[in-house]
From TrEMBL:
The keyword Protein biosynthesis does not apply. Keywords: Methyltransferase, Transferase. Gene3D superfamilies: Vaccinia Virus protein VP39. GO terms for molecular function: 16S rRNA (guanine(966)-N(2))-methyltransferase activity. This is Methyltransferase. It comes from the Bacteria. Pfam families: Cons_hypoth95 (PF03602).
């Protein structure tokens, strides 16, 4: 059983897709969101949840005060479950579900920067695909944005692209959670010649 850990709809259960997804455990979500709240990355945030599965990560963010969440999921069954979960939790006004490949979604310019990006791809997603997604996200981030990548604890750290850096990694059993951010522009604030 998967449920929202805390916030406005804390304790409510979520439907999960019948197969093909690996929902983030409550223990990992609780630890992750404790860290994100410590970083002041959730309240009022604009959140992208890529590879949403059941929507558990993005819906946890919405429950904890995110202003707007977009759940991106390519699988039809999983996207349908996301829609049902959004409706059951009464979050239609703040959560959108997009059935599309994450690579295609992030390739288009974002209307506004993302404050928080949650990526929980299947463990077999190649590093090259993850690198493509992360590189496409760089222009859609500010230096205050936080990017979360969940991977197998046996996998290498995410392939952070130019313009991004990792700043924290935590392991929870078989799961590793990597936090990254947009790197400050070294020329920002420099006086023009």
């Amino acid at each position: 059983m998967t449920r929202i850990v805390a916030g406005a709809v804390g304790g409510r259960t979520l439907a999960v897709p019948p197969k093909g997804t690996r929902p983030t455990s409550e223990r990992v979500r609780e630890a992750l969101f404790s860290r994100l709240e410590h970083l002041d990355a959730v309240e009022g945030a604009r959140v992208l949840d890529g590879y949403a599965g059941s929507g558990a990560l993005g819906l946890e963010a919405a429950s904890r005060g995110a202003a707007h969440v977009v759940l991106v999921e390519w699988g039809k069954a999983a996207a349908d479950v996301c829609r049902r979960n959004v409706a059951a939790l009464g979050l239609r006004d703040r959560v959108d579900v997009v059935r599309e490949r994450v690579e295609a979604y992030v390739a288009r310019p974002a209307a506004r920067p993302w404050d928080l990006v949650l990526l929980d791809p299947p463990y077999d997603v190649p590093d090259a695909t993850l690198a493509e997604i992360l590189a496409a996200l760089v222009p859609a981030l500010t230096v205050e944005s936080v990017v979360v990548v969940e991977r197998s604890a046996r996998s290498a750290a995410p392939p952070w692209p130019a313009g991004m850096h990792g700043f924290d990694t935590r392991a929870y059993g078989e799961t590793a959670v990597h936090l990254g951010a947009r790197s400050p522009d070294p020329d920002a604030g420099a006086d023009p010649l």
